Amino acid sequence: MPYVNADTLLPPELVAELQKYAAGELLYVPRPPEAHRPWGWKSGSRARLTARNTEIQALKAQGITIDALAEKYCLSADAIRKVLYRRSG
Description:
This protein is mainly α. It is 55% helix and 0% strand. The chain has two domains: 1-30, no CATH class; 39-89. It has five helices and no strands.
């Protein structure tokens, strides 16, 4: 995330108000709740993991063992169990 100088972005009155609380500090300004994006949304990681987990569940339903799934997906048997027994959202 690039650094942005408040003087170049905000009105002088707002800069003066911020200086009362955090002069010289670095601040993170979060998105408003309605603009929040969940983890993995932008990169596509969430969608890839969801697809992988769905595939793991389908293969288990076909009778593939946990150990075989762990080897196929380079995960531990415990990680496979978490995928299989995790409650949906």
